[in-house]
Amino acid sequence: MASSCLPSFAWIFALFFFFFFSDRIDVVKASRRIFKNPDSAETGSITSTKYRTAYHFQPPQHWINDPNGPMYYNGIYHLFYQYNPYAAVWGNISWGHSVSTDLVRWTGVGLAIAPTEPYEANGCWSGSATILPGNKPVILYTSSNARKEQVQNVAYPKNLSDPFLREWTKPDHNPIIEPAVDLNASEFRDPTTGWLGEDGLWRVLVGNKIGAGGRAILYRSKDFVHWVRAKDPLSYSSGSGMWECPDFFPSDGGNKYVLKMSLDDTRTDHYMLGSYDKVKDLFVPDGEFVDYRRWPRYDYGNFYASKTFFDEGKGRRILWGWSNESDSVSDDIAKGWAGIQTIPRVVWLDKRRRQLLQWPVEELESLRRKHVRLHDVELGTGGLVEVKGLKVLQASGC
Ligand SMILES: *[C@@H]1O[C@H](CO)[C@@H](O)[C@H](O)[C@H]1NC(C)=O
Ligand SMILES: *[C@@H]1O[C@H](CO)[C@@H](O)[C@H](O)[C@H]1NC(C)=O
Ligand SMILES: *[C@@H]1O[C@H](CO)[C@@H](O)[C@H](O)[C@H]1NC(C)=O
Ligand SMILES: *[C@@H]1O[C@H](CO)[C@@H](O)[C@H](O)[C@H]1NC(C)=O
Hints:
This protein has helices spanning 2-21, 329-335; strands at 62-73, 76-83, 94-100, 107-113, 124-132, 136-144, 150-157, 168-169, 188-189, 195-196, 202-210, 213-221, 228-229, 235-237, 243-251, 256-263, 268-277, 282-285, 304-311, 316-323, 337-338, 340-341, 345-349, 356-360. By secondary structure, the protein is mostly beta strands.
């Protein structure tokens, strides 16, 4: 198997780099091979629609960043995301909203949350969804007020009978969590999904920075409205810098917990494995994860601000992340869009319980069309084998 797969992969990669970059730069060294551009006359500019993705999530136009509040509710997958409704640069940050029944084909249903209130004067930033008793979803999100202080707010669906939960309302009691005087109000954001303790209290985490370190501040609430900060953060680390988008979830039936943080300094997503001391309300990392310099990453490519949710429908945990194309601002403006969400992946703990494993959701296979099988293929001197009978450009619908 491996001997027939590897060369075809290499070949597909070669073609990918060739087609994808050939009209943007003359020489590409990304795969340590050099491809010249033989037919630049045929190819379009950066504004060509062929650079849009066919399989990854992206809205029709404009800027997106972090995935927000993913959830499975009454048979529908919801994906919200940081979105500028007016331009392909960061700004006017709102929550775009799309729905799907298979995590592959998405329909946009408008803005779920947009800045309308004084406490959102500088945008509606990232957050999470939680499903409260009585099957009632709530969104908990950060906003930046006119003084650029980060505060946490809630929003509820306007009409629970609308299967797509298109409209969301903000109660008068927002904001519900404001930064205490000892917290840096410029580094206080991205609340997690809530979880219920054995004492019946809800818990959420908010990312924060203190000195050069990051931490996940813990809050508790009876009703998801009134929140009290715990004496100690759930976890912290010196030296790692700001923890954005913390994510905390059980694995292996609750024998292990995962605490993930997006490190603002390096724009990379890392995690620790450990146990959750429910009496002290502390996350205790396993020995090898104590030092932040040893935290593994979810993904070693362009992948940031990720978030997971538990899919009750299929009993799996699904991971979303934001990927930017690393284009210049002027290229983003020219092409009219910026940012994609990565393919959703199932994430689970390996048998040795030392690391997380992940694989694209099985629904993705519904995009496959023509199968090409290779048997008894001998590698040529160059180590490459051409796979005939398929086109590798996704836009061609192969
Ligand atoms: C924000 O929206 C306003 C229109 O409401 C627009 O004039 C402005 O250019 C937008 N800013 C950005 C950065 O998109
Ligand atoms: C709520 O949504 C349902 C289903 O779409 C619709 O029939 C009903 O009219 C909506 N109610 C209101 C008050 O908009
Ligand atoms: C608060 O955070 C901002 C943004 O990182 C930083 O510029 C500022 O120096 C911080 N203030 C304090 C008192 O640490
Ligand atoms: C885009 O991704 C690259 C590579 O991960 C990173 O260096 C850069 O800071 C990102 N840009 C933004 C706006 O996050």
